[in-house]
């Protein structure tokens, strides 16, 4: 019995260490964002006094609000299109018999491991030629490419679990394969699509390499890129507090979403086994 | 079922439960209308996704190979011409490329090794913890959900003298990010903090596949916990571990965001991805930049090849089990 209590205490303290280590940098950046300009360099973990000036400042600046709008728009459109394309492809892979099926899966897997920097130079050149440089579409297209593999793997794993007798029943009743897909299977597939959507959104929201390479102005620059190049309101104030505030603003919604949908995310990540 | 989609080589991809799996059988002259329409629908449904994937990877890589054989400097747009492998010999004979490759390999190996150990520990804690399992899982998802740039900034500020709490807590006045060794330490710490959760979740899925009865049996036979872990758990998890290692290795090799934010590549902390980016956007040299891109692509191919050669049997066994 004694050993049991000891073991329990051991696992619990290990859990506490994990939680503290996981949350420490997040608490730190929140603390920085709440510090007064004068206290930014005091090196203390907890702010001596709390102010929301940094938040007011960033929302008064075009740079940040434009970046926020770009990030939201680009991430949402990428998510929508990627999930749509991946759903049809995954359905075909899980259910239909056709040549080239394995090729699609193999290719998707290869892309998941693909070094993104390798396509940055050619895309930079092509985009400048055809006018996609510094546009939303110029970012949406690479995001689609690099999230489709994950979405296809997650969804085809999910589709294999769906009770397909229902589809056959619908076809027996005279539905075409497409009708069976749309009316019977799509509603059942919604949770899987939702999982894929979250993972795609996180990838697009997170991306930095494409965002700094393929954009140059507020027109399409997303928040991670804007934060990296953020100069502050004037040359005489250190932008640290404002950068921290911007970081908190873009982090909080995603972290909340991740926590709400954690079960789906965990199952999606482990079934796809591909990091977004 | 989580295993069905878990791993590489496509050659061993699990057979779908379709009704007519006659792909490899000799093609019958007459197909039923049903089978034909199924083929057509399948191709049609896959086509858009396949086209987008090919258009933005295969085509640009081909174009990168073409550019890498050219003198293509955006500052001298009219001086483009075919110069064979000169760009490659300039890159491969420069000490910068080898220095950056070494840095990248160092960061990759050290951070993946630490992540494997920590991730395994974390997976076991989540597997075993009776109290607060949900809390642990929720909090390790926070690093996963955080933007890498934000994570890099948080650690950067934490280690910046004056601003950061680290020096304050440990009574030091070290300028962490301006020295080679300590800057690498901060970069690796950031990588480990951000991606260990992913590793832990993959390993946790593998851990769930180890039957409790086997561990009980080992205990009854007098094995210590450590022996049971080494002789029972680890062998059964081999496939899951290798898949996690492969994905994280290739991912770590691309390291860019945290280095860009924390040091910008100063003090020999530059990775090959940073090198490629600098050639392109600071030097505007598409030819050299593309040669670097192609070389990075080759490195990734080599890493995948080595994994598949060394562990191919295990990787495909991992999928076969499903």
Structural account:
The complex is a heterodimer of chains A (276) and B (322). Chain A has 276 residues and is an all-alpha fold. Chain A folds into two domains: 51 residues, no CATH class; 215 residues, MetI-like (MetI-like fold). Chain A is built from twelve helices and no strands. In chain A, helix 3 packs antiparallel against helix 8 and helix 8 crosses helix 12. Chain B is an all-alpha fold. Chain B has a single domain, classed as MetI-like (MetI-like fold, Orthogonal Bundle). Chain B contains 13 helices and two strands. A two-stranded antiparallel sheet of chain B has the order 1-2. The radius of gyration of chain B is 24 Å and the shape is globular. The relative contact order of chain B is 0.15. At the A-B interface, helix 1, helix 3, helix 4, helix 5 and helix 6 of A face helix 1, helix 2, helix 4, helix 5 and helix 6 of B.
Provide a count of the helices of chain A. 12
Topology of chain B as a string of helices (H) and strands (E): HHEEHHHHHHHHHHH
General form of chain A:
globular
Q: Tell me, what's the shape of chain B?
A: globular
CATH 4th-level superfamily of chain B: MetI-like
Spatial arrangement of strands, main beta sheet of chain B: 1-2
Write down the overall mean pLDDT of chain A: 84
CATH architectural grouping of chain B: Orthogonal Bundle
Percentage of residues in DSSP E strands of chain B: under 5%
* Helix content class of chain A: over 70%
């Amino acid at each position: 019995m004694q050993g049991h209590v000891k073991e329990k205490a051991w696992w619990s303290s290990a859990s506490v260490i994990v939680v503290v280590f996981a949350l420490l940098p997040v608490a730190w950046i929140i603390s920085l964002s709440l510090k007064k300009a004068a206290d930014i360099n005091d090196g203390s973990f907890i702010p001596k006094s709390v102010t929301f000036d940094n938040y007011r400042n960033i929302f008064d600046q075009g740079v940040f609000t434009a970046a926020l709008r770009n990030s939201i728009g680009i991430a949402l459109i990428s998510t929508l299109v990627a999930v749509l394309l991946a759903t049809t492809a995954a359905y075909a892979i899980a259910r239909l018999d056709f040549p080239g099926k394995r090729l699609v899966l193999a290719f998707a897997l290869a892309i998941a491991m693909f070094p993104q920097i390798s396509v940055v130079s050619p895309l930079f050149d092509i985009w400048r030629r055809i006018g996609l440089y510094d546009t939303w579409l110029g970012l949406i297209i690479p995001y689609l490419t690099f999230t489709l593999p994950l979405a296809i793997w997650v969804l085809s794993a999910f589709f294999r679990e769906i009770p397909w007798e229902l589809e056959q029943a619908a076809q027996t009743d005279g539905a075409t394969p497409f009708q069976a897909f749309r009316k019977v299977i799509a509603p059942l597939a919604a949770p899987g699509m939702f999982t894929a959507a979250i993972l795609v959104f996180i990838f697009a929201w997170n991306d930095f390499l494409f965002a700094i390479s393929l954009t140059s102005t507020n027109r399409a620059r997303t928040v991670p890129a804007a934060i990296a190049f953020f100069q502050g309101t004037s040359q005489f104030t250190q932008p640290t507090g404002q950068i921290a505030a911007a970081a908190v603003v873009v982090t909080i919604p995603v972290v909340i979403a991740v926590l709400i949908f954690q079960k789906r995310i965990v199952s999606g990540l482990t079934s796809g086994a591909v990091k977004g | 079922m989580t295993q069905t989609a878990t791993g590489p080589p496509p050659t061993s991809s699990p057979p779908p439960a379709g009704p007519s799996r006659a792909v490899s059988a000799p093609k019958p002259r007459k197909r039923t209308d049903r089978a034909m329409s199924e083929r057509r629908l399948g191709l049609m449904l896959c086509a858009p996704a396949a086209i987008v994937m090919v258009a933005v990877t295969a085509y640009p890589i081909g174009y990168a190979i073409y550019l890498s054989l050219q003198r293509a400097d955006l500052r001298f747009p009219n001086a483009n011409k075919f110069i064979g492998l000169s760009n490659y010999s300039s890159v491969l004979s420069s000490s910068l490329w080898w220095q950056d490759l070494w840095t990248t390999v160092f960061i990759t190996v050290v951070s993946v090794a630490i992540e494997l150990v920590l991730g395994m520990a974390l997976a076991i804690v989540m597997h075993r913890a009776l109290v607060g399992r949900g809390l642990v899982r929720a909090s390790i998802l926070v690093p996963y959900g955080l933007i890498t740039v934000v994570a890099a900034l948080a650690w950067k500020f934490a280690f910046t003298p004056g601003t950061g709490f680290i020096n304050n807590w440990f009574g030091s006045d070290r300028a962490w990010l301006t020295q080679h060794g300590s800057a690498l330490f901060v970069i690796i710490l950031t990588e480990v903090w951000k991606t260990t959760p992913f590793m832990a979740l993959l390993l946790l899925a593998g851990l769930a596949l180890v039957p409790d009865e086997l561990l009980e049996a080992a205990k009854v036979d007098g094995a210590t916990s450590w022996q049971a872990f080494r002789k029972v758990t680890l062998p059964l998890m081999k496939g899951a571990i290798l898949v996690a290692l492969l994905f994280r290795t290739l991912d770590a090799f691309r390291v860019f965001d945290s280095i860009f934010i924390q040091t910008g590549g100063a003090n020999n902390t530059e990775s090959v991805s940073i090198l490629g980016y600098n050639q392109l956007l600071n030097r505007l040299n598409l030819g050299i930049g593309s040669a670097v891109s192609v070389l990075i692509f080759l490195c990734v191919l080599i890493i995948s090849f080595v994994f598949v050669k060394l562990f191919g049997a295990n990787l495909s066994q991992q999928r076969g089990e499903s």
